[in-house]
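From the methods appendix. Each design record in this collection lists the tokenized structure first, followed by the designed amino acid sequence. Records were kept in a plain field format so they could be parsed without special tools. The example shown here is representative of the layout used throughout.

RECORD:
FOLD TOKENS (239 positions):
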């Protein structure tokens, strides 16, 4: 059974900062492609219950994201809160400034990502996947391979989350969503390189092929190679 990414992202927030964490969870869902541009967020009552926040807090978070340009509210029978077709562009931070601010954060994020994602690929390949799970992986792979440059980061994130989903572990999927948000902050500070995207797509295909073939070692090695390439680029631009 697929552990849906929206279950991992729309999980109960911790006590203490319900508004801030609600905003963070909604942004995760949008930026990681769990809810895509043009899609409607879950109904307010359902979403508030899943996040374990009051409807007032949820409305305040949605209002904040509306002002920031991420969502819009529509009235009527088919109304609700929808993700905008055009999302705000990531704020570009200069590589030198980000490197200074990060200190040891770059290596920490990359190490955490390496452990989680290589393990996820290996674990996914050990499972006997259902037809639904196989179709889910193949569809996410196809979407990423065909992505426009402007959509690539979001669809790339969605594919990596899909790999975590088919491990069957909600905890792993949640952890992957968190580390991917950290990683995307770093990736947004460096340019998207066409050759690197082509290479990444080839590696994505190798990873998914190994998972679908039930080959844990090949899946782990393919993911390791893929993550190493990203790490090299990030160190080159930011270190």
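DESIGN:
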């Amino acid at each position: 059974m697929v552990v849906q990414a929206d279950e991992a992202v729309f999980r109960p927030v911790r006590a203490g900062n319900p508004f801030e964490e609600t905003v963070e969870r909604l942004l995760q869902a949008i930026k990681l492609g769990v809810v895509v541009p043009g899609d409607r967020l879950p109904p307010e009552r359902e979403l508030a219950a899943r996040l374990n926040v009051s409807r007032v807090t949820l409305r305040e978070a949605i209002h904040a994201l509306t002002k920031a340009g991420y969502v819009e509210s529509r009235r009527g029978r088919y109304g609700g809160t929808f993700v905008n077709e055009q999302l705000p562009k990531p704020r570009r931070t200069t590589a030198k400034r980000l490197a200074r601010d990060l200190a040891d954060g770059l290596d920490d994020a990359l190490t955490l990502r390496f452990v989680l994602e290589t393990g996820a690929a290996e674990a996914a390949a050990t499972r006997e996947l259902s037809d639904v799970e196989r179709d889910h992986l193949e569809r996410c792979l196809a979407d990423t391979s065909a992505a426009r440059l402007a959509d690539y980061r979001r669809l790339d994130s969605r594919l990596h989350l899909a790999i975590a989903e088919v491990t069957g572990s909600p905890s792993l999927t949640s952890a992957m969503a968190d580390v991917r948000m950290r990683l995307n902050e770093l990736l947004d500070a460096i340019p998207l390189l066409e050759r690197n995207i082509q290479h990444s797509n080839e590696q994505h295909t190798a990873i998914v092929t190994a998972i679908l073939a039930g080959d844990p070692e090949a899946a782990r090695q393919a993911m390791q190679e893929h993550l190493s390439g990203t790490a090299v680029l990030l160190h080159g631009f930011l270190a």
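APPENDIX NOTE: The first helix runs from residue 5 to 9.
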